[in-house]
Design brief:
This protein is mainly alpha-helical and 482 residues long. It contains 20 helices and two strands. Helix 4 runs antiparallel to helix 7.
C-alpha cells in the first residue's frame, strides 16, 4: 500500500491541491456555490440598476438622492472588504460567507418593502455590508480551493457577474409584462432576497472550511480531514513544521498587520492589484452600471428597449468574462489587464468625440467594445490578481484591502457619473472618464509582477523563508516574474 503523504503545514496542503489536474466532485459543487455569492452581489447591484428609473419616478428622487442610493453599497464595502478579510483570517473562510447572505437577504427585503427614500437607503446599507464581506472572502477561498495550474479560472467571476446582471434584467422584463407598474423595482430588488436565502441554505449545508486556512492555524488533523472530504486526498497529519509553529504562536494577522502588504516583495503586488481593482471598478460603475441610461439615449425612451439593450451589452460581458480565463493564462493577468485598459481607453475616447454624431449602429458598437475589453481584461483580473498574489496567512487581508480600494473606485464612479453627466453631458463625460483606463494601462506596464508567471507560489515561498508575520515581509524576490 502506498504511503499516505504527510501534511506539516500550509505548503503541503497547497502542494497536494496543486497536483490535481481538475476540479471535480464535491470540490466542483463547492466552487460554484462560492461563485454563487458573487452572482448574488452582481444580481443585487443589477436589481437596483434595472429598477432605478421606475423607482425615481415613484419616489420623485433628486439626482443627489440617486447618487447617494447607488453609491451606498460600494461605500459600505470600502469598510467591510477589510472587515471580511479580518473575519476570514480569524474565524475561517466559510462563516463570513454565511453572515453575508443574512445581511443580503435582510437588505433586499427591507428595500423592497420601503415606503420612502430613507428605508430604501437602509436596505442598501445592509446589502453593502454583505457585498463587502462576501467579495473579499470568496476570492480568497476560491484561490485556496483551486489548483495553481487552474488559477486563471478565478477570472470566470466576471462572466458570473454579467450572467447575474442579465438574469435580473430578464426578470425585470417579465415583471414589466405582468404590468406591475412603477412597483417593478420592488419585485426586482426583492428577488435578490430570494436568491440570498437559497444560497444561504446551500452554502450552510455544502461548504467545507479551507484546508489551507486550517493548516495555517495549526489544525492539521482538520486540514487533512477536509482534504479528504473535498478532494478525496488521503493524507496524514504530521509534526507541524517551523512555519506552522511560528504562525500559531505569533499574533493573529489583523488590521495592524496590514502594513505587511506594503513592504518588501508584497509592495509592487499590492500596488498593481489595487490599481487594477480601482481602475476597473471606476470605469465599470461609471459606464457599465449605467448601461440602461446609455441604452435609453441610444435606442429611445422606452423601458423595454433600454432593458433589452442592456441585456445585449451584458451578453458581450459574458463572452469577455469567459475569454478572460484564456487571456489570463496565455498573457498573464498583468498584460491582459494592460491590453484591456488600452481597449477601454480607445473606446471611451471615441465615444466621447463622436457621441450624438454617428449612426445608431456605430454608437451601439462602441459600448460593446468597452464591455468586451473591460470584462476580458481588468474587470476580471482586478479581483483575481490579489487572491493569487499573497500567501495564505495574509490572503484574505490582501483581497480585503484590494477590494476596499476597488469599492472606493465604485463609489467615485457611481456618485460622479450622474453629477458629471448633468454638468457636461454624456459625450464629455466619456472623455473625462478615459483618463481612468489610461492610468491603469501605465501602471500595468510599469510593474512587472504576475502570479500566473511566477515559478514559485506565495505559500511555497513563505514556507521557505518564513511566515509573513515573521522576519520576512513576503515571498522571496526570486518568485517575481514578468
Amino acid at each position: 500500500m502506498a504511503q499516505r503523504p504527510s501534511v506539516k503545514g500550509v505548503a503541503d496542503v497547497v502542494a497536494l491541491i496543486d497536483r490535481l489536474g481538475k476540479i471535480s466532485g464535491r470540490a466542483r459543487i463547492m466552487w460554484f456555490l462560492v461563485f454563487g455569492g458573487l452572482f448574488l452581489d452582481a444580481y443585487s447591484n443589477a436589481a437596483l440598476s434595472a429598477g432605478l428609473g421606475p423607482m425615481t419616478a415613484q419616489m420623485d428622487l433628486s439626482s443627489t438622492q440617486i447618487s447617494v442610493l447607488t453609491a451606498t453599497a460600494p461605500a459600505l464595502a470600502i469598510v467591510f472588504n477589510p472587515v471580511g478579510g479580518w473575519l476570514a483570517t480569524r474565524i475561517g473562510r466559510v462563516p463570513p460567507l454565511l453572515i453575508a447572505k443574512v445581511f443580503a437577504a435582510a437588505g433586499a427585503l427591507l428595500a423592497a418593502c420601503a415606503g420612502d427614500f430613507t428605508t430604501v437607503w437602509l436596505g442598501r446599507v445592509l446589502v453593502g455590508i454583505a457585498y463587502g464581506i462576501d467579495f473579499a472572502v470568496a476570492m480568497a477561498l476560491l484561490a485556496e480551493y483551486t489548483p495553481a495550474k487552474l488559477g486563471g479560472r478565478l477570472n470566470l467571476w466576471q462572466a458570473v457577474w454579467y450572467m447575474a446582471s442579465t438574469s435580473n434584467l430578464v426578470l425585470a422584463l417579465v415583471f414589466f409584462n405582468l404590468d406591475v407598474g412603477e412597483d417593478i423595482w420592488r419585485w426586482s430588488v426583492g428577488s435578490a432576497g430570494v436568491v440570498a436565502v437559497v444560497l444561504l441554505a446551500l452554502q450552510w449545508v455544502v461548504l467545507v472550511e479551507s484546508p489551507a486556512w486550517l493548516a495555517s492555524r495549526g489544525r492539521l488533523d482538520d486540514a487533512v480531514r477536509n482534504l479528504a472530504r473535498i478532494y478525496r486526498i488521503n493524507a496524514v497529519a504530521g509534526t507541524p513544521d517551523g512555519v506552522t509553529r511560528a504562525a500559531t504562536t505569533a499574533p493573529a494577522i489583523g488590521f495592524r498587520q496590514a502594513g505587511l502588504l506594503f513592504k518588501g516583495d508584497y509592495l509592487p503586488r499590492t500596488v498593481l492589484s489595487s490599481a487594477i481593482s480601482l481602475g476597473q471598478s471606476m470605469q465599470y460603475f461609471a459606464v457599465g452600471w449605467y448601461l440602461p441610461v446609455i441604452s435609453l439615449t441610444i435606442f429611445g425612451d422606452s423601458f423595454e428597449k433600454a432593458t433589452v439593450g442592456s441585456m445585449v451589452f451584458n451578453a458581450f460581458g459574458i463572452v469577455g468574462g469567459l475569454a478572460s480565463a484564456y487571456f489570463g493564462r496565455r498573457l498573464g493577468l498583468r498584460l491582459s489587464s494592460a491590453t484591456g485598459f488600452a481597449g477601454v481607453f480607445v473606446a471611451l475616447l471615441v465615444m466621447g468625440l463622436t457621441f450624438g454624431k454617428i449612426p445608431t449602429a456605430v454608437a451601439f458598437l462602441l459600448p460593446v467594445v468597452f464591455i468586451l475589453c473591460h470584462s476580458a481584461g481588468p474587470g476580471a483580473n482586478g479581483k483575481s490578481i490579489a487572491a493569487l498574489s499573497y500567501s495564505s496567512d495574509v490572503r484574505a487581508l490582501g483581497t480585503g484591502v484590494t477590494g476596499m480600494i476597488g469599492s472606493f473606485g465604485s463609489v467615485v464612479g457611481l456618485y460622479a457619473f450622474p453629477q458629471i453627466k448633468d454638468s457636461l453631458g454624456l459625450g464629455h463625460t466619456f472623455l473625462v472618464l478615459s483618463v481612468v483606463p489610461l492610468l491603469g494601462l501605465i501602471t500595468c506596464l510599469a510593474i512587472k509582477w504576475d502570479p500566473m508567471k511566477a515559478e514559485v507560489s506565495p505559500d511555497e515561498a513563505a514556507a521557505a523563508h518564513g511566515p509573513a508575520g515573521g522576519t520576512h515581509a513576503g515571498p522571496a524576490a526570486t518568485t517575481t516574474a514578468s
